[in-house]
TrEMBL record:
<keyword id="KW-1133">Transmembrane helix</keyword>
<dbReference type="GO" id="GO:0009882">
    <property type="term" value="F:blue light photoreceptor activity"/>
</dbReference>
<dbReference type="InterPro" id="IPR036046">
    <property type="entry name" value="Acylphosphatase-like_dom_sf"/>
</dbReference>
<keyword id="KW-0812">Transmembrane</keyword>
<feature type="domain" description="BLUF">
    <location>
        <begin position="3"/>
        <end position="100"/>
    </location>
</feature>
<dbReference type="GO" id="GO:0071949">
    <property type="term" value="F:FAD binding"/>
</dbReference>
<dbReference type="Pfam" id="PF04940">
    <property type="entry name" value="BLUF"/>
</dbReference>
<feature type="transmembrane region" description="Helical">
    <location>
        <begin position="166"/>
        <end position="185"/>
    </location>
</feature>
<dbReference type="InterPro" id="IPR007024">
    <property type="entry name" value="BLUF_domain"/>
</dbReference>
<protein>
    <recommendedName>
        <fullName>BLUF domain-containing protein</fullName>
    </recommendedName>
</protein>
<keyword id="KW-0472">Membrane</keyword>
């Protein structure tokens, strides 16, 4: 049994939908599938998405990672998949992450600024920049929350709950109306 690590860069083929908070819906769908599949396959890693580009890092058993990478490379949601790094690994470094996701965070912006990059173009990364990016994803505490948007099954409207005082007020008013109607009917 041997472990490997692999990083690649690719270009999204979908048009990013604007989101004011949370994760772009297409990316959220990818993350949901990744998290459940990777847990089953004992694969860990991180995903970064920004400026219509993906950077993904994977660690796991060689067979499992290669099989996943074949599947990912054939996914029509991205193109121009370029392997940036692929090598044996002694021990896992992303212990608890089936797929950690880092949104366009200030530390990634800092990384781009440091290297004089205006946009996120992982296909141009040097090996050192890849390592820096991997460390950044691993160390980031800004885990992007996958919130509903249009992700199947999870977008349920919250039931409207009235504040307690308003509820009590309405009940008292209703009793008053019924009382008045009974009183009025005795006058007829
Ligand atoms: C950028 C990108 C990253 C992806 N990463 C993963 C991943 O880490 N794990 C995974 O299972 N699927 C990943 N996918 C999705 C796979 O290509 C494929 O759709 C999915 O594994 C199929 O899962 P299913 O058979 O459970 O539907 C990724 C897709 C894209 C476009």
């Amino acid at each position: 049994m041997s472990l490997i690590r692999l990083a690649y860069a690719s270009e999204a083929t979908f048009l990013a939908q604007p989101v004011d908070k949370g994760v772009e819906p297409n990316v959220a769908r990818i993350l949901m599938a990744s998290r459940s599949n990777n847990t089953k396959n004992d694969i860990v890693g991180g995903l970064y998405y920004g400026d219509d580009r993906f950077f993904q890092y994977l660690e796991g058993e060689e067979g499992a990672v290669r099989a996943l990478y074949d599947r990912i490379a054939g996914d029509s949601r991205h193109r121009n998949v370029i392997t940036l790094l692929e090598e044996p690994l002694e021990a896992r470094t992303f212990a608890n992450w089936s797929m950690k996701y880092v949104p366009l965070s200030s530390d990634v912006k800092g990384f781009l600024n440091r290297h004089g990059m205006k946009r996120f173009r992982p296909s141009d990364f040097t090996r050192d920049q890849c390592e820096e990016m991997i460390k950044l994803i691993r160390d980031s505490s800004q885990e992007g929350r996958v919130v509903s948007h249009d992700v199947a099954g999870s977008a349920r409207p919250t039931p409207a709950v009235l504040p307690k005082g308003v509820g009590v007020g309405l009940a008292v008013a209703a009793i008053g109306v019924v009382g008045a109607m009974i009183y009025a009917s005795t006058m007829l």
